[in-house]
Design goal:
The chain is mainly α. It has 17 helices and no strands. Helix 13 packs parallel to helix 17. The chain is globular.
Length: 418
């Protein structure tokens, strides 16, 4: 086993431990971000190199030593810059939340109304309407802390709504992400013991694995329109049938599960293709991401579109099917632009950018505690390991501006004491 592969597993274990211990003590969104990245960039890739079965297309395109010798140091530099922010700039929940419960109800209503309005607004404003629609989840987080049962019921009803919506569309991403973010608020309120956290973590891992087991067959039946019955029962039936057939004893199944976790195959495809078949971008995608994120689409009609398909095809040399979109990831984009050595430096700089943003966010939240409940919205794309820089920056900058404008509006016109 290569030394960088050993370091990779040590990092995964360490960041998992840090996240586990912080749950219930603080709001560990930065810890969650690096844990997701560690699992997708390091742990998934580590497993892929050790499974004997490989997908015909989604496999590791370069030797393990070459992959790990870039991604592990790059990730290490990224988290070393961020680590001081974990302890030094922590979210303070020592304030009276009760006066904000009424605002939580209104935020929930605003989000629902934005959802309804999204079918009629022009495409140039869809992203901002989407952001406002997420207010329903911001309000849901606040209502969890209410002393009234009816408010807390809203919290659990929204989780059921997310799961029902996931079943209806056979898309589970939003359900998993928002449920995880809601769990961080739940842990703050309930202060679970280490044993309780462990049970909940293992239950969550099992449920996510269950979704991955079911997803392909479930989607096929739903999207083809061949199933018209109860989707909850369908989900359960597919899962029961899979588990009863010794699912985990088949290495093809294990390889398929790991494939859904592993983002390393994309990074490895980039490292194989660049610079042998196409030159390094030398910062061009970074500049494009910054410029496109600053200007809204109605001011810049040629603004880059989210999704990453164009850059993915260009820098991996692989084709994507119609309607399929994949991102290069931040670390993949670091290599695309700057190669190994400068790519590692770029990851340290990106860690510094996030650290600065987090520091300012924590400082402002101490005077405006309601802002704490908007953190999941602000970091909704940031915590994803598969997204490229444009998607992350675009969401972070525009959601920050939108939240700032809403606070101004709420204070001046709604007379909110925030």
């Amino acid at each position: 086993m290569y030394i960088w592969s050993v370091v990779a597993i040590i990092i995964v274990v360490y960041v998992g431990y840090v996240f586990f211990t912080e749950v219930g003590k603080s709001f560990p969104v930065l810890e969650l971000m690096i844990l997701i990245a560690a699992l997708q960039w390091l742990f998934g890739a580590f497993n892929a190199y050790r499974l004997s079965v490989r997908h015909y297309k989604y496999y590791m395109y370069i030797p393990e030593e070459e992959y790990m010798s870039f991604v592990v140091p790059a990730f290490l530099c990224f988290i070393v810059v961020l680590l001081p922010a974990f302890r030094k700039y922590t979210i303070d929940f020592n304030f009276n939340i009760i006066p904000y419960i009424g605002y939580g109800r209104w935020l929930f209503v605003f989000g629902v109304l934005a959802d309804i309005a999204s079918v009629v607004v022009p495409s140039s404003l869809l992203f901002f309407v989407f952001l406002i629609a997420q207010f329903k989840y911001v309000g849901t987080g606040i209502l969890l802390f209410s002393t009234q049962k009816k408010d807390r019921y809203v919290f659990y009803a929204v989780i059921l709504y997310l799961f029902g919506s996931s079943l209806a569309h056979a898309m589970f991403h939003d359900f998993i992400l928002w449920s995880l973010l809601f769990f961080l608020f739940w842990a703050i309120k309930n202060k679970p013991t280490a044993k309780t956290k462990l049970v909940l973590f293992l239950s969550g891992v099992f449920f996510v694995i269950s979704i991955q087991i079911v997803k392909a067959s479930f989607r096929k039946l739903i999207w083809e329109g061949s199933f018209q019955g109860n989707k909850t029962f369908l989900f359960y039936d597919i899962l029961s049938e899979s588990l009863s057939s010794n699912y985990f004893e088949d290495e093809n199944n294990l390889s398929d599960l790991n494939l859904r976790l592993n983002q390393g195959w994309i990074i490895s495809a980039i490292m194989r293709h660049v610079p042998d078949n196409i030159e390094h971008a030398n910062g061009s995608t970074v500049k494009e991401a910054v410029f496109s994120s600053i200007l809204p689409r109605f001011l810049n009609p040629n603004n880059k579109k989210a999704g990453g398909k164009e850059n993915f095809v260009k820098y991996t040399g692989l084709d994507l099917g119609k309607g399929t979109s994949m991102g290069m990831s931040i670390v993949g984009e670091a290599y695309v632009n700057y190669g190994k050595k400068r790519g590692i430096i770029f990851m340290a700089i990106w860690g510094g950018v996030l650290r600065f943003y987090w520091k300012r966010l924590v400082k402002v939240s101490r005077n405006h505690p309601l802002l704490i409940f908007f953190i999941p919205l602000l970091f909704l794309q940031v915590i994803k390991a598969e997204t490229e820089l444009y998607v992350v920056l675009n969401h972070l900058l525009k959601s920050t501006f939108m939240v700032w404008m809403f606070f101004k509006f709420a204070k001046k016109y709604l007379n909110w004491n925030i």
